[in-house]
Design goal:
Blueprint: H1 2-21, H2 23-50, H3 54-62, E1 67-70, E2 79-81, E3 88-90, H4 106-109, E4 115-128, E5 131-139, E6 152-156, E7 164-168, H5 169-175, E8 182-185, E9 191-199, E10 208-211, H6 217-226, E11 235-241, H7 249-256, E12 261-264, H8 265-269, H9 278-281, H10 292-327, H11 329-337, H12 342-374, H13 376-383, H14 394-421, H15 424-429, H16 440-462, H17 466-492, H18 500-511, H19 513-547, E13 557-560, H20 569-579, E14 582-592, E15 609-613, H21 635-642, E16 658-660, H22 663-668, H23 674-681, E17 685-687, E18 693-694, E19 697-703, H24 706-714, E20 722-730, E21 742-744, H25 746-751, E22 755-765, H26 771-784, E23 790-792, H27 800-839, H28 845-894, H29 912-933
Parallel strand pairs: 5-10, 7-9, 16-21, 17-20
Antiparallel strand pairs: 1-11, 1-12, 2-3, 4-5, 4-8, 4-11, 6-9, 7-10, 8-9, 13-22, 13-23, 14-22, 15-19, 17-21, 18-19, 19-20
Helix pairs in contact: 1-12, 2-10, 2-12, 2-14, 10-14, 10-17, 10-19, 10-27, 12-14, 16-17, 16-28, 17-18, 17-19, 17-28, 18-28, 19-27, 19-28, 20-26, 27-28, 27-29, 28-29
Length: 946
């Protein structure tokens, strides 16, 4: 035991000395191992620091209070809730009746003797230095001790009287304001001075202002409603402090009986058992947690990724350790000459991996800590919330560091075995024996590759498991890595057709497979991952492009605004026409029920809504299947009904399905059918859905009693309302209206007594508006202080080009790095030959040319093999997705949703541009770079005898 310990101590000291002597090589390997450790340790620190404890969550939610009580909007009927207060359900079942709705009385449910603090939230549009900004308006007495912890004061003070507000730091940055500035709300003349700034620890990017209770929301809501605009939609909760043991679970259940929910600090810190939660005892409810199978699958995926990453680093670092072993051959020979055996040689080389792995672990972890600490504000801003604390978990960081040590050891295993097999005489004289390649490794690799391909294809064709496909692909890639020495030999047979310099380089690579194969395998692994992701991304891009549904013809523009009965619409129309290259402008109006200020689906008293009336004979039978007492269809019947023209649904959406407009709208929508155009000119309505037409007429139902309408609809009965009938022309199916179902002439709407309000305009353009024109229009809309509801149809845009470029650059860097390491080792091995060439008069460029071709050969072999290997996982994943989507499509047909679903289209597309860049540009670039950095001349020295 003592001898073993001292031999390893000596080996570590020798390895440490060699690592310090060859600083360039050591730094290269150190960086390769330390960089992933830095990233993983920084990610671990960030995730752990951002993960809040139950106490920290409650401090940000409740401040110093014991609970927050809120109204779930179920009319005060008894409810059951989850302990975290995120889910609730009526205690009574409402299968055939109306679902409870309405306001509950929070104050009546507050425990006797409790201290309370009202917390109200609404929204409004505040005028900033840049225009209008939709802002959360928060009313809370922030000076009350109960509110301490909910928000953090940054500058100034919290407001304490009417006319004062504090603003979130993000609101000030976005609005171009500062403490001391004055803000006003649209619709309210009152000015509010900003007396302080604050931040919400859980919502750093929130645009919010804080006012004392009753000073902002109520006046603004009153002014907006008086002006015919939507109100602030204020909602209120109550912070409650009861003292003692806090707001217990029994107290939560007590307030639940009065229809009120509560988030409790005591319950969050000590949650009740699932058996004590009435909500989880109801049918269809349970405390959903991640299953053991899904956790195992996630761990398997993480393990596979970590394993492949370690393999990649080992393949890259292994040749570097081989370089060190080759340069230290004489030293290792002296160890053997002085009584050291093979295990001592292996220990010295392995100690090199141990030393560099340990240094990488310390350096990577330390840099990860420092980087995370230094970038903490940036990271917090990126994730949008403050860290709970700087949470350093030593055991996790130790585990990450051990991965670095393990990686260094594994990278040195093969060089250690190779160095230990060299004889003492060969080491001392510098001779290199010829060792045949292993015959077992290619067989193992072939079996693994075949088995991996089989598993991948089975997973894609017979299962829906992505894990099986990923595992099979990883096994196949490992098999190809094991086959690399044999495949390198096959590449050597192409040398007979190459010129002298590349032929020498290829012959050298084949004869020295021990250093060539790891580098080729490293390039293979990096390129295979790149090709797999690129193939998947390109295929998905084609799929998304095919599935894209444009909202307008290409280049067309809409601007829609329903606020205030359309009073700002004329200014919006003029602004778009001024700043965009408009060809045709079509002004459109909407139907309003009640008065012109009534917004669609408004809940304001006196306002209603409309719907397009579909005759009974034209209704899809599947629509009424969920109505109690209606006929229930079998899966086969649903499939047949899905093909019925009455069950076909439009796949395009428009904010307004009925528009009041003239023939200019047809021009913008690119509908040039003469019959349609002439019919609209003559005063007829145009229908784009033949289900709505009966006997040449179409109906629009005006619904004034929305509550009764909702009740009747829930019971499956016709909604009461007056039907306005119009003569109609049915457009051909080839005409696309982009979600608009009816175009109604203005004279027809007036004749029927419909209330209409201007809502915006549709524009066709001479060319797609550019960025400058868009910015000018945005500035004009800001100056108007109007939210324009602008949309420009630019067609499908893809971000995959950037992704593919980044992947190509990444693969290129790894390829050049691996090929450069192999080239450095090749130069070390071939140094005697190069000196001999220089001695007999070979031109200086031979050294440079040979170096370039050696690097290019390694890069080319790795790229070719990696490109072939990378296509397999992408194809497997795409086939798995196709199988899953086909399964969902069949389920939708059985469920009667065939009219909404389309047969899945899951293409497999090879990214030829990316492959061309990898196959041509990367090897050529690696060769040129190696040639440029290689010295043409070297000192002539005598060769070792023999």
């Amino acid at each position: 035991m003592n001898r073993w310990y001292h031999s390893w101590v000596a080996a570590v000291r020798i390895a440490r000395r060699d690592a310090w002597r060859f600083k360039g090589r050591s730094s290269l390997v150190l960086a390769m191992i330390a960089l992933p450790i830095l990233g993983v340790s920084a990610a671990d620190l960030t995730l752990r620091s951002a993960e809040l404890s139950a106490g920290q969550k409650m401090e940000r939610e409740l401040g110093a209070a014991d609970a927050r009580m809120s109204d779930p909007g179920m009319g005060g009927v008894p409810i059951h809730q989850s302990p975290d207060g995120l889910n609730s359900n009526p205690a009574k079942e409402y299968k055939d009746g109306e679902w409870p709705s309405g306001h509950g009385d929070i104050r009546a449910a507050i425990p006797e003797g409790a201290k309370t603090l009202k917390d109200s939230n609404g929204s409004g549009k505040l005028r900033t230095a840049h225009g209008l900004l939709n802002t959360v308006i928060h009313e809370l007495d922030a000076t009350d001790p109960m509110a301490r912890g909910i928000m953090t004061l940054d500058q100034g003070r919290f407001p304490d009287k009417a006319g004062e507000v504090a603003a979130s730091t993000h609101f000030l940055e976005t609005g171009g304001l500062k403490v001391g500035s004055v803000v006003t709300a649209r619709g309210l003349a009152t000015e509010y001075r900003i007396v302080g700034s604050y931040e919400l620890p859980d919502a750093l990017k929130s645009d919010e202002v804080l006012a004392p209770p009753g000073t902002f929301l109520a006046p603004l809501d009153k002014a907006l409603k008086a002006d015919g605009l939507p109100g602030t939609e204020t909602s209120s909760t109550y912070l409650v402090s009861v003292g003692g043991d806090g707001f217990t679970w029994n107290m939560v259940k007590e307030v639940n009986t009065q229809g009120i929910m509560a988030i409790s600090r005591a319950v969050a810190l000590a949650p009740p058992a699932d058996s004590e939660v009435p909500l989880y005892q109801q049918d269809g409810w349970s405390n959903y947690e991640q299953s053991a199978a899904s956790e195992a699958a996630a761990l398997a995926v993480v393990g596979t990724v970590v394993g492949l990453a370690i393999l990649e680093i080992c393949l890259l670092a292994g040749p570097a350790f081989a370089v060190g072993a080759r340069r230290s051959a004489r030293q290792l020979g002296l160890v053997g000459a002085n009584g050291g055996d093979r295990r001592h040689i292996r220990a010295i080389v392995l100690s090199g991996g141990l030393v560099i792995g340990f240094a990488a672990a310390v350096l990577g972890t330390a840099l990860g800590l420092l980087l995370t600490f230094a970038l903490r504000p940036v990271l917090e801003d990126y994730i949008g919330k403050r860290f709970g604390s700087f949470d350093v978990r030593p055991l996790e960081l130790l585990g990450i560091g051990l991965v670095a040590v393990l990686t260094g050891l594994l990278a040195a295993v093969v060089p250690a075995i190779t160095a230990s097999r060299q004889t003492v005489l060969a080491s001392l004289t510098g001779r290199r024996g010829v060792r045949r390649s292993s015959r077992v490794l290619p067989v193992i690799g072939l079996i693994a590759a075949g088995l991996g391909i089989t598993i991948t294809l089975y997973g894609a064709a017979a299962t829906d498991s992505v894990v099986i496909v990923a595992g099979g692909s990883a096994l196949a890639e490992l098999g190809i890595v094991a086959l690399t020495p044999a495949l390198v030999g096959l590449f050597g047979k192409t040398g007979r057709w190459l010129p002298l310099s590349p032929r020498l380089a290829l012959r050298d690579a084949v004869r020295n497979r021990g250093r060539t194969a790891p580098a080729v395998a490293a390039v293979l692994a990096a390129v295979a991952g790149t090709v797999a992701v690129a193939t998947y991304a390109a295929s998905d891009d084609v799929q998304q492009r095919a599935a894209y549904q444009p909202q307008l013809p290409h280049g067309a523009v809409t601007v829609l605004n329903s606020e205030g009965g359309g009073r700002d619409v004329p200014a919006l129309r003029a602004a778009v026409q001024k700043h965009f290259p408009v060809d045709v402008r079509a002004d459109v109006s909407r139907i309003a029920v009640g008065n012109a200020n009534c917004a669609p689906y408004s809940e304001v008293k006196g306002c209603g809504r409309y719907e397009i009336f579909t005759p009974k004979d034209n209704r899809c039978a599947l629509w009424s299947e969920d109505v109690p007492g209606s006929k229930q269809f079998t899966a086969d019947e649903r499939r047949k009904l899905a093909k019925d023209w009455r069950c076909k649904e439009a796949r395009q959406y428009s904010e307004y399905d009925v528009l009041v407009a003239d023939e200019k709208l047809l021009s913008v929508l690119a509908i040039d059918n003469p019959g349609v155009v002439n019919a609209l000119k003559s005063g007829k309505a145009i229908s784009f859905d033949r289900r709505d037409v009966e006997n040449g007429r179409i109906g629009i139902k005006l619904i004034t009693d929305t509550d009764k309408a909702d009740l009747m609809q829930a019971k499956g009965k016709d909604v009461p309302g007056e039907i306005k009938s119009f003569p109609v022309h049915q457009a051909p199916e080839s005409a696309t209206a982009y979600g608009v179902q009816i175009i109604l002439p203005e004279q027809a709407a007036k004749a029927a007594g419909l209330i209409t309000a201007p809502v915006g305009a549709y524009f066709s353009t001479d060319k797609l508006p550019d960025s400058t024109q868009q910015q000018k229009l945005d500035a004009a809309l800001d100056a108007l202080g109007v939210d324009g509801g602008l949309y420009v149809e630019k067609g499908y845009t893809s971000d995959n080009s950037i992704v593919l470029l980044a992947l190509t650059v990444f693969a290129g860097l790894v390829t050049i790095g691996a090929a450069g390491i192999a080239t450095g080792l090749a130069q070390t091995d071939a140094e005697p030959d190069l000196k001999t060439l220089a001695a007999v008069g070979a031109p200086p460029r031979v050294r440079r040319t040979l170096s370039g071709f050696q690097c290019g050969v390694v890069a080319a072999m790795g790229v070719v093999l990696g490109s072939a290997a990378g296509v397999l996982p992408a194809i497997g994943l795409r086939l798995t997705e196709e199988r899953q989507e086909l399964k969902w499509y069949e389920q939708s047909l059985d469920a009667g949703m065939g009219g909404l679903a389309e047969a899945p289209y899951v293409p497999i597309v090879i990214p030829w541009e990316t492959l061309a860049a990898l196959l041509v540009a990367v090897p050529v670039g690696a060769a040129l770079l190696a040639a440029l950095v290689t010295r043409s001349r070297t000192a002539v020295a005598r060769r070792a005898a023999g």
